[in-house]
Amino acid sequence: MTGPSARKTNRHSEAFRAPKKVEEGGIIKIYGAFLLDHEQDILNLVKHEGKLAEERNPAAKVAKIAKANGGFEVTTTDHNLALKIGKALSHAYKGEHTYKFLKEEKFVEVVWQRD
User: How many other C-beta atoms are found inside a 10 Å radius of the C-beta of residue 90?
Assistant: First the structure.
């Protein structure tokens, strides 16, 4: 067989597989009784850190802030920004924080809380 159809049958399907997309970004989960009295201050800090990061790198943004499970969930487009916000919350307001990276991904989950 010759012509275009002969070439199609000889190709390996592996060559056409899309590369695995690496998940990037982060989520910051903010909880605790402290949040009730300082909600606006905490949100202002989150937004401020997002603006600073966006000035340095336009791809790094706070994508979404939403109320969830008695607190807030902040979604970022960059894992470094999520870490920076988590550290800024801990520095400014103390509290407990944890960081968890997804295996082999550039995605981080930050949980910050203070009671």
Answer: 15
